[in-house]
Amino acid sequence: MATTRKVIIIGSGPAGYTAAIYAARANLAPLMISGVQSGGQLMLTTHIENYPGFVDPVLGPELMETMRKQAERFGTDMIAEDVVAVDFARRPFVVRTADASFEAHTVVIATGASAKLLGLPSETLLMGHGVSTCATCDGFFFKDQDIMVVGGGDSALEEALYLARLGRKVEVVHRRDTLRASKIMQDRAFAHPKISFIWNSVVRDILDPAAGKVTTVLLEDVVTGARSERRVDGLFVAIGHEPNTVVFRGQIELLPSGYVRVEPGTTRTSVPGVFAAGDVQDSVFRQAVTAAGTGCMAALEAERWLEAQRLG
Ligand code: NAP
């Protein structure tokens, strides 16, 4: 095992990179364990227009590459491996990948969350080209167009209500005939003139992915088995998110939903010296800029914690 690090950052989305930039500039020589697939959810996005600092749209992978270079420029070491286990019961903390073991006085968890997907090959092919998991990010590209939202929870209705401000019409496809969403969200969606519902139905396929955009969706009525085609321009999958916290189970306190519990207004977890930033601790806002903001907070809190322990 190599020397003990002051900070290890696990995960490489906007939260992780921002934590790395701040920690590196504070001379903490952070180690980032970026994951085999680095960059997080923005790697699945095309144009980003709501991240401050860019007059013109920036591509998700490009933005992440810029953040990575910025973190490296100030001396962040990167390891492109997945974390397979952590031990937060002992100090220094231990973080393990398949090939190596690392020690650190503080850890920033920035492993994000993954949007649940339908699992269709066409969905993967058209992700960022008409298929999206984020209305705030991509709704603008569907101004005055026909939009479909999949899901029956609060996220689906929130996305539908947001998209109804932009699109010509919004159809919500739900696999049952009752919604899981809260009453208030249901009332708002039912009352909205642009929103309609397609009940007991699932998306079986997105036709013609070779077109490079969404044109037609194949639906199946789960009660009758009848199939039908609907012309749409944008398909928003809003069937929930899964925080990437499996390796932290039993090591820090998680909420029943699986998200990391942090003290309100901080990035402090239940283990002093372990901080959590970005979507892994945020089921509400889930934006690149809010993730970056909490990444900054985590690095500053780690720095202060190290100073208080005289480890800085
Ligand atoms: P959720 O409550 O788990 O709802 C997921 C929805 O997607 C359910 O309606 C589910 O159907 C459907 N679904 C799941 N897998 C599917 C699949 N493979 N194919 C088709 N449909 C599928 O997730 P969420 O809406 O993201 O909400 C997560 C939590 O955040 C909830 O506690 C929610 O209240 C909260 N939240 C709150 C707000 C707000 O208050 N403004 C906004 C967003 C989220 P079934 O109903 O049949 O299971």
Provide a short characterization of the protein structure:
The chain is α/β, with parallel strands linked by helices and 312 residues long. It has seven helices and 19 strands.
Q: How is this structure best described in words?
A:
This protein has 312 residues and is of the alpha/beta class. The chain folds into two domains: 5-114 and 241-308, FAD/NAD(P)-binding domain, CATH 3.50.50; 117-237, FAD/NAD(P)-binding domain, CATH 3.50.50.60. Helices cover 24% and strands 26% of the residues. It is built from seven helices and 19 strands. It has helices at 14-25, 60-73, 121-125, 135-138, 154-164, 183-191, 288-308; strands spanning 5-10, 31-33, 47-48, 58-59, 77-79, 83-87, 93-97, 101-109, 113-115, 131-132, 146-150, 169-173, 195-198, 201-207, 216-221, 227-231, 234-237, 241-243, 274-276. The strands form five sheets. Strands 1, 2, 5, 6, 7, 8 and 19 form a seven-stranded mixed β-sheet that branches. Helix 1 packs parallel to helix 2 (60-73), helix 1 runs parallel beside helix 7 (288-308) and helix 5 (154-164) runs parallel beside helix 6. NADP nicotinamide-adenine-dinucleotide phosphate (NAP) binds at residues 116, 118, 150-156, 158, 175-176, 180, 202, 239-241, 283.
